[in-house]
Specification:
alpha/beta; Arc Repressor Mutant, subunit A; pyruvate-formate lyase- activating enzyme; 2 domains; nine-stranded mixed beta sheet; 19 strands
Length: 452
Amino acid sequence: MQIDILARYDRSVPRYTSYPTAPHFTEAVNGAVYRRWLTEIAPETRASLYLHIPFCRELCWYCGCNMRVVRRDGPVMAYAETLITEIDQVADSLPARLPVGHVHFGGGSPNTLAPETLARLMDHLRHRFDLDDETEIAVEIDPRTTTDAFIQACGETGVTRASIGIQDMNADVQQAVNRIQPYDMIVHVLETLSKAGIHDLNADLMYGLPRQTVDKVVDTVDQTLSLDPTRVALFGYAHVPWMKKHMRLINEAELPDGPARWGQFEAATERLNAAGYIPIGMDHFARPQTQLANAAKAGALHRNFQGYTVDDSTVLLGFGASAIGALPQGYIQNDPDVRRWRSAIETGELATVRGRELTHDDRVRRAIIERLMCDMAVDVDAVARAHESVISAFTPALDALQGMVRDGLVEISGTTVRMTATGRPLVRAAASAFDSYLERSENAAPRHARAV
């Protein structure tokens, strides 16, 4: 891609794991609103559950998650007990015991949980919800701090998928971001997962980190491919030290610039494609004939706060400090402060402090953005008509995409918008044309990751 074209579109734009995006949530949605929304859920709805574990044993300087470092087990155990209380409060507010299709433990590092604590949480989820043999249970794992006992507990409690944070395999890059994890350590974790019966493995990689070069990123991809993961996520590092103060520990002089980041992404993508992985959306790759690859081929891919997924549930219940949930009525987010979250739960209140009730326009735009993000194409008129809306409402967005058309990144035929092969990595920039909330001023403070 030409450098001038890249510079035009490599700007701060949302990842669109929701729409409207989290910066546009407001305090108008609180615990009382969330409780009312829960009572209105159809009893037969198959829900998804997200449990946020905001603890790590070590600090990675690139981390953008809501987390804090803990050295003792006590705070984690106390947090888990409050999680159980919150699960009860939410379940008690529902009109029925809901079936569950997906459970996801994220963080932070869920492996800060003691094995018996993970088992207690899973037992309680099964007590309050209906999990069956088809339920996917996914856990994020930090290879540096997990234990064989935790992995064994994952297998015993029914975990079906593990997401391994690899990021980069090169020692000097690992040193630059304070995440030291030799290749042999990762191999041991994967072998232990396999022995525990967990074979669906996701590898998280990053580009744009300090000291990374194209050769180092390719080396990381090659070593990752030797581990034969089911899927690979390739994320661009978002350097936002004004939001995450620990990122100031990173030497900014060692960060690659826009063209260098693009070269890293392009080289990694070519390597993954050559290895037979199917591109999923803008930054995921999956082995052929997997659920994710088949959903992408069928136009049945979805996008939520966990990224690209086959999960089509309209109800995502979020548990824990900062957890975000999605319901037919809108989005909710818990208090990100663990103490305030715990205080609310212990007093019998839901800890929701912000959210967004969806308007009709929000629903239409969300559907357009999701299809473009997932399929790299969307018939805007078809989506508008399906939501009893009119194409004229989106004429300004189509007009705004003309620059990307001229630059060979987007094709528009009638009312169908399609990303070109060159434009695919910039799909977030194209999706942002349909975002009625996005601040487009050149002077606006950056609130999102760069497009590449």
